[in-house]
Amino acid sequence: MMEDGVRRSEVFRYLGYGNRVPDEETGELAEECIKELLRVSEERICVREFPVTVRDGSLDCGCFQTSSRSLLKNLGGCARVLVMAATLGTGVDRLLLKYGKLFMARAVVMQAAAAALIEEVCDRNFESWRKEYEEKGLYLRPRFSPGYGDFPLSVQKDLLGGLEAGKRLGITLTEGGLMMPSKSVTAVIGISPVKGFCRTEGCEACEKKDCPYRRSLGQGRET
Amino acid sequence: MDIRDELKRRRIFFDGGMGSMLQERGLLPGELPETWNLSHPEAVKEIHLEYLRAGADVVTANTFGANGFKYKKDEGYSLGSIVTAGVSLAKEAVKEAGHGYAALDLGPTGRLLAPCGDLDFEDACKAYKEVVEAGVRAGADLIVIETMGDSYELKAAVLAAKEVSSLPVFATVTLDERGKMLTGGTVETAAALLEGLGADVIGLNCGLGPVQLLPFMKHLRSVSSLPLMVNPNAGLPRSENGRTVYDIDARGFAQAMKAMAECGVSVLGGCCGTTPEHIRRLRETCGPLPLLPVEKKDRTVVSSYGRTVILGERPVIIGERINPTGKPRLKQALKDRDMAYILNMAASQEENGADILDVNVGLPGIDEAAVMTETVRELQSVTDLPLQIDTSDVKAMEQAMRIYNGKPMVNSVNGKKEVMEAVFPLVRKYGGVVVALCLDENGIPETAARRLAVAKKIYETAASYGIEKKDILVDALCMAVSSDKNGAMTTLETVKRVREELGGKTVLGVSNISFGLPMREHINSAFFLLALENGLSAAIINPGLPAMAAAYKSFLVLHGMDENCSGYVEKYGQEEAARKAEQEARKEAAAGMRKNGSQGTGETEGSGVPHGPAALEGDPAETPLKRSIKKGMIQAAETAARNALLSADALTVINREMIPALDEVGKGFEAGTVFLPQLLMSAEAARAAFGIMKEKMTKDGVERENRGTVILATVKGDIHDIGKNIVKVLLENYGFQVMDLGRDVPPEIIAAAAVEGHVPVVGLSALMTTTVPAMEETIRLLREKAPWAKIMVGGAVLTEEYANSIGADAYCKDAMASVNFAVKYVKKI
């Protein structure tokens, strides 16, 4: 199931199934959607390393500043960070737009599959950076994205600017500050000299504890 | 001297990177480089001078990112002063160096255009015009449009440059290693678009190094009839201590660029990571190489944002369905602005193998320009097939050509002076391949020779506008053979002679031939084959008709245009397998009947009421329609709907079978036994069945009761509309008329719509925390302007409590909750 990089369990979690198994028709629909999605998806990713400094409780990550306490906690003890951006490209948005107009069931499943795919792209790259840094005796913290905890979306402009993500990946911001293409992710990854266990990952770090899509402990993550 | 004249005589060299040079001089991360035109003018001028001394002929002003989105009014420096200073510095450097040209530089706006993003095409165009106007006033010698990753934005920039200046336009796009632009364009789509728009020099820049760009430049050379340019990066980037460095030095760069010059690229320069040293070496190495002449290509091509279609090779199919003539259902859809119906027509023609889609929305009493632009805009958001803008309304033609994302096909011009005077300037300005009908003030010529004479006249007049023969598709005119027995032969002769004697390409509206005859498909497919055999380049047909598809597919096989017959096998292989399987099944069934002592003959008669195994599932009293809606089976639902209408009227079927089925699925969803995809598949099946009911009711003159109007919108600042669209599908199935205002909708528009229609229920959606304030503002305005309206809200970040606090009447946690709210509220009034 994992060969094409889309975790089916995640797709169905996004569709609200929790741990339940979908019926055959939905399963088939999901497979069709994933196939079509992979045909148009153009993954692009870029990452840069920056020094990180803390002054008066405010973080300077090289290309952006923030006083987010959750990020500060996540980066505790790190002198450098990786700042990353990834996207599936506009082809996926076109597909979502198309089925949003022609066939809603497909749009909804496609949307879930695309969300699972971009996460997978981020995880896959994270894994290769993790190995790369471990060889140098450095350890990566879990990736932490604007929007997690109190890490505000308002950093996106500077963060994307610091990566030249507009030119290199085609990620732009709308007037309201949302990333386009919609299936795009930015994140900060702390580089620590000590191997430490960090419990908070993306979904679990969220304050919205009653979210129906929340990842329950011990579920979904195949490591 | 105009740089275009100079380019005819010698190779032109551009400068290299600006950003990295500024960084070396202290530009900070996050600082806008263009600000340096005013804050550090000497540094900017010095960089220009270094490039000019190194041998650059053109210096690019430091205006790449200068636009109204980055330099907003009343915030620091004004856009005008930044652009003026940028161009002036380049000009001063040119004057000091004693040679060279100063180019105004236009880069991407930094925003993504609709439909994928939220920037309107005209707003992008306006933003570029503001920069071009300032650049022209400051005395720029040419305009460089570069690093473009989106063809639509590229079109906006070129149009802006052309509309407010007469300066030469050099335009380059950026590709990734797959040869794709960021929004899906290719070398070929970019070339088609730019040649159509009248760019002077085209090419590639940034993204990759000269080694990686070489194959793409060769490809461009093979399709383009314009002088080419390339400004690659200094190889591929890597990050070193947070800084970007490139992997080719000046000498390596110059060597790699030699291959560019040798394959015919006339203008050479550099982009990110290149320095004056790169340009010095480049000029040394490539300066002495001979300039290869530009090769004119006889390529007739139309394009969309991501696809080109070539005319004159394999015959091309233009899908004719989106044309209201003789189609009452489409007429109704156009009057109701029911875009979903039209989009579905497009999707099915695409599935059936259309290469291009004809778009004709001409109906008495509608605003054709408005409907045409809306239809083109919607179509190009769901299909990448190029479109044929089919109208005699010049205003509609121009507006549609303007917002079209590519090089369109235009239908049509003819030999009448007045028509040519109206249409050719549009084709000249926006680009396009235009269909030219062989008729003029004297009517339709009866002989092929006279039709050829009209075609010649059209070619000549077009040439006087700068439109080449390759961009004209002669319509040999297909008249009803029932009214003129020689008509078909005249048409065929015209097709043949236009190709052989005039070297032109042709098109026919094939199905006109059978007008007035029974079983039109027989005549149509036979005539179609004859026309193809006579060299027809494109046919306007319905690709969904089996006989036409069969004629076409067979022709391709027989003419060796279907490699390994793979297209044919793909289309008919499965059909044959299915037919065999059906025959087998019949034989078995017959054998079984014989065994059971019945009188079977091996052939069953009619299908009657299906008794499939599915009927055994669940409630035995459940009708096939109800069952197929519940299971979300679209085709089965359509068939069942037709069957149900044999014994009951539409309203009875809706109320007794369809609504109960939807209710059941909805209750299952609320109880957590049915999930969102199933809910929506049921909704789609129901919608398909409603389509059948609607057809019947239109015929019978009956209307389904309208339960009331509901406005839906995603609030300002938010562009997520999936939740809103889900609600829409369900509400429509329950008989509500949905006024869908779209996404990113300002409060004033929502309030105005509620007031105008005295709409009882408004549904607002917001997905992001950052856009909830816009929702609150919308509710406030609605309370003031439309106090009668009940407001339901939904979206990922909302909760019951949050909804109450911003003054909504109801929080709907999912789509069924919205339906329940609308049903409940409408019952009250």
Question: How would you sum up this structure, described in words?
Answer:
Chain B: Residues 707-829 form the B12-binding domain. The complex is a heterodimer of chains A (223) and B (829). Chain A has helices spanning 8-14, 24-40, 69-74, 90-102, 104-135, 156-162, 165-169, 202-205, and strands spanning 44-51, 53-55, 58-60, 65-66, 80-87, 139-140, 172-173, 179-180, 184-192. Chain A has 223 residues and is α+β, with helices and mostly antiparallel strands. In chain A, the strands form three sheets. Chain A has a four-stranded antiparallel sheet. Chain A has a three-stranded antiparallel sheet with strand order 2-3-4, with no helix packed on it. A two-stranded antiparallel ribbon of chain A has the order 7-8. In chain A, β2 (53-55) and β3 (58-60) form a beta hairpin. In chain A, α1 packs across α5 (104-135). Chain A is globular, with a radius of gyration of 18 Å. Chain B is α/β, with parallel strands linked by helices. Chain B has four domains: 3-286, Homocysteine-binding-like domain (TIM Barrel), CATH 3.20.20.330; 309-563, Dihydropteroate synthase-like (TIM Barrel, Alpha-Beta Barrel); 613-700, Methionine synthase domain (Methyltransferase, Methionine Synthase (B12-binding Domains), Chain A, domain 1); 709-828, Cobalamin-binding domain (Rossmann fold). Helix content of chain B is 49%, strand content 13%. In chain B, the strands form five sheets. Chain B has an eight-stranded parallel sheet. Chain B has an eight-stranded parallel beta barrel with strand order 13-14-15-16-17-18-19-20, surrounded by six helices. Chain B has a five-stranded parallel sheet with strand order 22-21-23-24-25, with helices on both faces. Residues 598-618 of chain B have low confidence and may be disordered. Classes of the chains: A alpha+beta (223), B alpha/beta (829).
